[in-house]
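Below is how a single chain appears once it has passed through the pipeline. First comes the sequence as given, then the structure the pipeline wrote out for it. We keep one example in the README because the format questions we get most often are answered faster by looking than by reading.
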Amino acid sequence: MNLGNFAPVKMYVHSLNFDQFSSHFMKITNTQRVRSIKSLCMGILLLAFLSLSPSYHSQGEAIFKAKCATCHAVFQNGTGPKLYGAVQRWEDAGEGDLIYEWVRNNAALRASGKSKRAAEVFAEYKGSVMTVFADLTDEQIGSIFEWVDSQDPNASGGGANQAGIVSGESEEEEGGTPWTWIILGTMFVVIIMAVSGVRRQLKIATKESSEETDSLTYIEEFKTWAWKYRLYVGIVSLVIVLSLFVGLFKMLYSINVMENYQPSQPIAFPHDVHAGINGIDCKYCHNSVTKSKSAGIPSVNVCMNCHKKINGEGKEYQSEIEKIYAAAGWDPTKGPSGAYTGETSPIVWNKVHNLPDHVYFNHSQHVVVGGLDCKQCHGDMTKMKETAKVQPHGELNKIQENIDSQIEFTKPTLTMGWCIECHNQSGVKIAGTDNAYYTEIHNRLKKNDYSLLNSYNDDGKVTVKELGGWECSKCHY
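Resulting structure:
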């Protein structure tokens, strides 16, 4: 083959060195450079958005914590049944497709009569009413069960084993917003530095920059760019700073918020057995509630009033009753009907409801004078299978006495906002009482300001707030 015909090509290839190729390649228009940089930035921002967007899996976790964790645990039965394997249990009952209707509106499903499984669960949990979640789609409900079933039963973390023990879990989730802004802000700076670097290299390659520009550092490049676009940089910086402040205040607000707090106890005391099945009045055990600011922890002798005879022999709770005997120094095998040995030991209970030292709260004032039922603040203990916990305000809104009194809580339980809401909405039971305090207030209103009296009567009730229940020294030392 004669290669002479290819001589021009050979000479061109030989003469085209790397520098010429680079120079030829770098000869692109400014418009093309800007488009390339824009494409790079958009690609990075798109990746950031996708990485920060909640996945189907994390969506299920978020919905579980927001709507389910109050009553349901993953691996343990609580106020409601455990959710781990719930789909399988419904499928085994031949009603796998009805579990979505059960979650959305369990009352409607029971009323329809088409689900035996729904009736069985309702009966098993003694008529415990489940919240209606009509806004949830099948996809969202499916994501909840997918996340639940993906949990490891043998994991030692314990976070999913309990129904939101401390409200810090939800607060932590809310507190994640500032971190999102921090990540976005960091990526924003990285993008600026990357673009500045590309711009610098382009200028050097095309010899469009002076020696002074070539010697600029990344920080100087950033300052120049930030000053040029100072309006946009200022807006973005303001948004980031405000987000950090909001996140900080949310974190500070969550300190000592005890909603859902449920510490372990040395003796597993089932309130549903005592207050529910056996119908024991709360005031029998917490007998100081009508006489003192404190409801009091029952002393062991109160337990022994019943458990001298009820020893739980052969029952699952026999071991717990034996702990009471050890504390009281009681030997059920001694003598014909048992006897005290004199060897006692204290029961170290863990306090559940904690108020700050600067807060004054009087149980007798609320129970005797105010006529409140214990469940209005502590929840329905007749359905509490486990040890006591600080009931979330959503559960307290389901208590019939609160519904009848038109009390609706929006603030976390045991916070100042929670108390203020109750004082603002609850009506004082004046009719039929001979309380001299109410009589004096009424006489003062009649003598001085009928318009104020009429405004109090507009809503048909006199609230605690209207009688001075918002005055600071009523609750603070």
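The radius of gyration is 35 Å.

See the next section for the split statistics.
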